[in-house]
Amino acid sequence: MTTRNAQLATEMRELRDRVVGVTDVVVASVDGLLITAETDDVADPECLAALTAATLSIARRAGSITSKGMLHHTVSRYTDGYLVAHAVGDMALIGVLGDTGLDIGRLHAETQAFLQRLSTLLTSADTRPAGS
User: What is the enclosing helix (H) or strand (E) of 68?
Assistant: First the structure.
């Protein structure tokens, strides 16, 4: 029988395999506590989880203040790649790091089903932070 964390890891690896340019994926609680990660060890997964939570929090606040509605995701583009942050309902988030070749359009298309599968896994999984 497959554990929930193994299923989460499989989902994240499959996202990395399906989308050109994805290098790292983290799943975290909304307060930034790491649940699980699939990374290349370039970025610290716990730090990436916390930064993704902060990014989403600021973007949500900006949407609220400007009456733009509910936040779907954020995309930060840098000289050497991307950080994409998605909310997984009200309980969790994902952070995706990508290199300069990240296929943003493909990532957005793949992420929709990915988020639904993650939500299902997280609502039935033990979502304590890694190392707890």
Answer: none
